């Protein structure tokens, strides 16, 4: 049976109702396709349709703070590709900054706790908890105070480093021709990649794992947001470190050559005696 069309808009009629405009159309009013008016073009309203799926952190008003935080962490841990494919390149700095601060400071807190526990275990292993309890307690109190100061400093240092590292990475993307979005997009990538700081919960190697994992998440985020290859994203992240190593290596080589020349001159001078 041939489909019938609405006489008002040209939409397909199903069960005597137009699927396009919703009008009720009696059977004797339904038209054949070649008799129906042409459907008007569908225009996207300003600002989009408004039903694109947002990442949980940007649905905080709907989910609540703690649920949005938990869902965001869960998605980045389980399906980072899907998360960063839905992350908007714009939307403000405040939300990503708060998320990056929370996860970054959480990593610092966990690492400091492990430092305190490690020092206590070390004192116990040296057998100092008995005869020198007062001295050990004083040293442990000093370590705890240093940890508290470190956490307080991180409240300022983490946001500063987020902005600086984002700026450096974005500059590298511009040099490599991969900055297809603005600085805000790069900042959002770096901020949400701070989820990797949760790896600090692993004793001893947690810091190293967090550093490597951060790079992995940043690569995934930058590749999706800027629509570039993972290789170019990785190069943008590592290039500053490579340049620094080359510069330092150059200075060390120049210093070494100078020292060898000086020692050679001294040796030659001493040989004349």
Describe the structure.
The protein has 2 domains: 1-37; 56-229, no CATH class. It contains 8 helices and 3 strands. It has helices at 60-63, 65-78, 80-86, 94-125, 133-176, 183-192, 206-225, 230-271; strands at 4-5, 12-14, 17-18. The chain has a 3-stranded antiparallel sheet with strand order 1-2-3, with no helix packed on it. Strand 2 (12-14) and strand 3 form a beta hairpin. The protein is elongated, with a radius of gyration of 31 Å.
The chain-level structural class is: mainly alpha
Radius of gyration based on Cα positions? 31 Å
Q: Mean of residue pLDDT?
A: 83
Largest β sheet strand count, sense and barrel closure: 3 strands, antiparallel
Catalogue the unreliable spans. 42-51
* Number of helices, counting only DSSP H or I runs of 4 residues or more: 8
Domain unit count = 2
Strand content: under 5%
Q: Determine the N-to-C terminus distance.
A: 115 Å
Q: Secondary-structure element sequence?
A: EEEHHHHHHHH
Number-wise, the strands total 3
Form type:
elongated
Strand order of the largest sheet: 1-2-3
Tell me roughly what share of residues is in helical segments.
55-70%
């Amino acid at each position: 049976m041939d489909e019938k069309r609405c006489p008002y808009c040209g939409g397909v009629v199903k069960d005597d109702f137009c699927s396009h405009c919703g009008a009720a159309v009696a059977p004797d009013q339904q038209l054949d396709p070649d008799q129906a008016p042409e459907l008007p073009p569908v225009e996207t309203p300003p600002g989009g349709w408004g039903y694109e799926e947002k990442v949980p952190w940007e649905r905080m008003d709907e989910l609540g703070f703690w649920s949005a935080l938990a869902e965001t962490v869960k998605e980045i841990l389980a399906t980072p590709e899907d998360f960063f494919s839905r992350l908007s390149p714009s939307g403000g700095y405040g939300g990503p900054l708060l998320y990056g601060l929370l996860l970054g400071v959480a990593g610092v807190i966990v690492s400091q706790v492990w430092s305190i526990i490690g020092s206590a275990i070390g004192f116990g292993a040296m057998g100092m908890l008995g005869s020198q309890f007062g001295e050990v307690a004083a040293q442990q109190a000093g370590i705890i105070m240093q940890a508290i100061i470190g956490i307080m400093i991180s409240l300022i240092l983490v946001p500063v480093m987020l902005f600086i590292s984002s700026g450096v990475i974005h500059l590298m993307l511009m040099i490599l021709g991969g900055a297809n979005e603005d600085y805000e997009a790069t900042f959002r990538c770096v901020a949400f990649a701070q989820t990797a700081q949760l790896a600090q919960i692993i004793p001893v190697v947690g810091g190293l794992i967090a550093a490597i994992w951060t790079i992995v998440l940043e690569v995934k985020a930058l590749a999706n947001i800027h629509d570039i290859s993972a290789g170019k994203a990785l190069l943008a992240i590592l290039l500053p470190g490579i340049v620094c190593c080359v510069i330092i290596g150059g200075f060390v080589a120049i210093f070494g050559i100078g020292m060898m020349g000086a020692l050679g001159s001294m040796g030659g001078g001493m040989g004349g005696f």
